[in-house]
Amino acid sequence: MVEAEDLVPVDADLVWDYEIPDAEHQDEAFRRWYIARVLTRGRSENIRALGLRTIHAYLGNLVLPARVRRFWEWYFSLPEVWERYGTPDSATA
Fold first, then answer.
1. For residues 10 and 18, is the Cβ–Cβ distance under 8 A?
2. Residue ranges per domain, the chain?
3. Which of 26, 59, 60, 90 is deepest in the core (most CB within 10 A)?
């Protein structure tokens, strides 16, 4: 069973090409895929809905275009952001 804190808010407009599983069937693979979709095609409100903690936790495990990955790695390397979130760690997601 998926815990409430493991759920990601899904915007149906971003997954026109994918059948969205109901909340109890959102597995880890779907979460990684959806977070990558938000980072590559989402709007600012989608990023806010995910939250920076979620993005930070999953960043090391996402398949992303190089320019998108570089942006987020740059962002999380900023001193004030790094103090809050640390280094993205693939073991956390």
1. no
2. 4-85
3. 59
